[in-house]
DNA-3-methyladenine glycosylase II (Saccharopolyspora elongata), 284 residues
Amino acid sequence: MLAPLRRGSGDPTTRVDASGEVWWATTTPVGPTTLRLQKDHAGTVTAAAWGQGASFVLDNVPDLLGASDDDSGFVAVHDVVERGRRASRGVRLCASGRVWDVLVAAVLEQKVTNREAWRSWRELCRRFGSRAPGPFDGLWAAPDPLQLRQIRDWEWHRAGIDGARRRTLLAAASVAGRLERAVELRGVAGRELLQKVPGIGPWTAAEVAQRAWGDPDAVSVGDFHLPTIVGTALVGRPLDDEGMLEALAPYEGHRHRAVRYLGAAGVQRPRFAPRMPVRNYRTM
């Protein structure tokens, strides 16, 4: 359920131990905070938090674990979607309750491979973020808007972040407080608010909406692989963005949920699909 919030196995903001205990560091309006989630054999989840924003994070735990997600009215039109729904075993869409952290990560993932973006995410968190409060050593929160605006030009280059993504992040940091209102607006209105920032388009807004408020209908239009995945699964051939939206039309209101079920069903892009090259950031 919390997997969408984790940016690769080396994400410095998240740790999952062998027992399934989850540690998650996040920014809040009052400072970095650490959340620990433990689930017992009966399925009961116990939460504890450290830091000035502990009450903010604890109050949001039910939504983080999908309590506000409502899949009523969802009907699986395709067998593969129904198979993914059964495989999900009632997993709901999580909602972090906060735009900033997921926005930074989403901007870093614009037009680059996950491998590149996750390396930049690790660099930003460890070098410019804050050590997460609490007993878990080695956990970091993402840089808050003030910390991000203090990063020097050459440090952006060292982190493998090009000028376009840097400008987008700085523009978002200058209005970060206002962007948090997107969680309250939700849906199309929330996504449109995010897109008022130069450099944030439909893809980035959807990626944020899926995580910040668990938007069940936010489709990542403009994704490099998604139209091929959806098209191959639902109509038997790769599609473009327009074709993908047409194929997903029966799931209006729950299109992102349908895409998640495709993932749960094990649907992946064909092996012969073109791959986005990994760039050498040192030559940028």
Observations:
- The CA atoms of residues 160 and 283 lie 9 Å apart.
- The chain has a mean pLDDT of 94.
- The longest strand covers residues 33-39.
- Residues 73-129+144-213 form a domain with the Endonuclease III; domain 1 fold (CATH 1.10.340.30).
